[in-house]
Input
Amino acid sequence: MRMDQFDIAILTALQADGAMTNAALSERVNLSASQVSRRRQALQDAGVIEGYTVRLNPQKMGLGMRAVTRVNLRHHGQERDDQFAQFIKERPEISVAFSVSGDADYVLDVRVADLEAFADFIHNHLLPHPQVSQVRSEIVLRTMKDPHGGAV
Output
């Protein structure tokens, strides 16, 4: 899909506030509400806009600690990778997970209440998983940039 300056302006505005109405968008990007509506629908139909979400504040939800955790698996193969992927989906502590290249197989964004909850997750859930061979974590001291806000 070819996008012009109006499409980019609509996307930029929606990233800041996904609940913005077409009327509010039309004022922001200097197009009529009907033009905004058609463009927004075209962006959705083309898959440029995949959906709308709510940004949550982890601290206000009692999830004040964040860790970046790198995981290596013992063995690889589709079935084993699928088992670990299912584990990731089931664990509420894991807010984002990536399969990566480099010195780790997976990088996890872990959100928990505190260090005690983090230790519980690592020692009682992640390390005992039969596929996990190694875990290395860094505690996030300060977030410098996060375009998705406090995604949980």
Summary: The mean pLDDT is 93.
